[in-house]
Design brief:
Pathway: Nucleotide-sugar biosynthesis; UDP-alpha-D-glucuronate biosynthesis; UDP-alpha-D-glucuronate from UDP-alpha-D-glucose: step 1/1. This protein is of the alpha/beta class. It is built from 18 helices and 14 strands. Helix 5 runs parallel beside helix 6, helix 9 packs across helix 11 and helix 9 packs parallel to helix 12. The chain is globular and about 75 Å long.
């Protein structure tokens, strides 16, 4: 099938790549000329493991092209994916301006039946809204062209995007006509996954409910971690014991310094706003937003309890992206932590396998290590913000010898506590500090 994907960010690139891999002919469109030039040269503008070689292969086979011209991309296309950003507005709702722009542009160029697919995360009712925008444009052109708008939300995890798209847990298809449903089932016929056929409004809600539920699970274990700390209980053991119950499951039960990223904070906020707009206070969502907001403050208080005043202290942060295997730093807890540590007067050095430069652009006054070993030189404390495998696997004896102090604050409970204690570190994890009986 001939497919157009609008927006070549984390979601658009992965959608284009995985659909190209199963034999479809793909046009990727973006307004960012540099991105399009890079992509046409086989260079991935983001860090996402495994995607670049697949793009290079598809380009070579002529199955994938990138352009800044939507009009050109739309020629003969059967399906258009909208995968543009929906960033958070200051009032908490998602900004739909990029989706609206794209819908208008589609309406300006459409001449025959196309299935338009909302892949961006958008509030309930957006499929109908996109439909009305396109209709309006067609009316202005004096045309009456049949089309459908489908909601097909994306559930990929950055860092594992390609494997998620090749083998998703489920594909949610919110279709309002049989024709659109048939087109979407044909599109995905070679992907082995559960297919959940439902209405566009249900599909839109499934995306927000899923992300908010995962954020709730993380926040629950973070609150448990705070209590564990006060009661001399190890939250890692607790989560392990809980996760063995199939009804609970082990995932998203790792206590830490809070969730971040481009999705959870904005999607929880958007769902809370959807409730507010129909006069329903979403009390669980409100609580998890508050708890998550305070998680870095709580963490910082624990650092101060251990180290005393931080003014003039040299602290190294390892892992700065919002999670491992991505260069995405949107809403990364490391950003909040750096800001707060700087306000306390600490001297900060940071290192991340791929996101260091992005952090340096935001905080030009902090030092960035060329590698983890140079970053920890003379540090009085090391803080793990993100559990990259290459950070967990560091030679911690060497790290200790390079440092000027011996504190390690494991913000992701990712390191081997016993080994570090044997190496002479004062180890502090989230919710696993058994000496703190009150
Ligand atoms: N990143 C994720 O892990 C993830 C996962 C699931 C869902 N989502 C959702 O998917 C959507 C996209 O997220 P993302 O992280 O890929 O965003 P992104 O910011 O990485 O990419 C968006 C792209 O859209 C382009 N764009 C904006 N306006 C355009 C226009 N008029 N025409 C063509 N291109 C245009 C931008 O230049 C950018 O390259 C969001 O709604 C997000 O919430 C993201």
């Amino acid at each position: 099938m001939k497919i157009t994907v609008i927006g070549t960010g984390y979601v658009g690139i992965t959608t284009a790549t995985s659909l190209g891999e199963i034999g479809h002919q793909i046009m990727g469109v973006d307004i960012d000329e540099l991105k399009i030039e890079q992509l046409n040269n086989g260079v991935l503008p983001i860090y996402e493991p495994g995607v670049e070689p697949v793009i290079q292969n598809l380009l070579k086979q002529g199955k994938l092209h990138f352009t800044t011209s939507l009009k050109e991309a739309m020629e003969g296309t059967e399906i258009i994916f909208i995968a543009v950003g929906t960033p958070q507005l200051s009032d908490g709702r998602p900004d739909l301006k990029y989706v609206e722009e794209v819908a208008r542009e589609i309406g300006r160029h459409m001449t025959e039946y196309i299935v338009i697919v909302d892949k961006s995360t958008v509030p309930v009712g957006t499929a109908e809204y996109v439909q009305s925008i396109i209709k309006e444009q067609l009316k202005l052109r004096g045309l009456s062209v049949a089309f459908d708008v489908v909601s097909n939300p994306e559930f990929l995890q950055e860092g594992k995007a390609l494997q998620n798209s090749r083998k998703p847990d489920r594909i949610v298809l919110g279709c309002s006509s049989q024709v659109a449903e048939d087109v979407m089932l044909k599109l995905y016929e070679n992907i082995d996954a559960l297919k959940h056929l439902t209405s566009p409004r249900n599909a839109e809600m499934i995306k927000y409910a899923s992300n908010s539920f995962l954020a709730t699970k993380i926040t629950f274990i973070n609150e448990m971690a705070r209590l564990c700390d006060l009661l001399a209980v190890d939250v890692v053991e607790v989560a392990k014991g809980m996760g063995m119950d199939k009804r609970i499951g082990p995932y998203f039960l790792q206590a830490g310094i809070g969730y971040g990223g481009s999705c959870f904070p904005k999607d929880v906020s958007a769902l809370a706003m959807m409730g507010r707009e129909v006069n329903m206070e979403m009390t669980i969502l409100k609580s998890i937003q508050e708890i998550n907001q305070k998680q870095t403050d709580w963490f910082l208080e624990r650092v101060k309890e251990c180290m005393g005043a931080l003014d003039g202290k040299r602290i190294t942060l390892l892992g700065l992206s919002f999670k491992p295997d991505t260069d995405d730093i949107r809403e990364a807890p490391s950003l909040k932590l750096i800001q707060k540590l700087l306000a306390e007067g600490a001297f900060i050095t940071g290192f991340d396998p791929v996101a260091s430069n992005k952090i340096k652009n935001i905080f030009p006054n902090i030092k960035i290590g060329e590698d983890a070993y140079s970053a920890v030189k003379d540090a009085e404390a090391v803080v793990i913000c993100t559990e990259w495998k290459e950070i967990i696997d560091l030679d911690w004896r060497t790290i200790k010898s390079l440092m000027h102090g011996d504190f390690i604050f494991d913000g992701r409970n990712a390191l081997d506590r016993e080994m570090l204690q044997l190496e002479g570190f004062q180890y502090w994890g989230v919710g696993r500090n058994l000496n703190k009986i009150v």
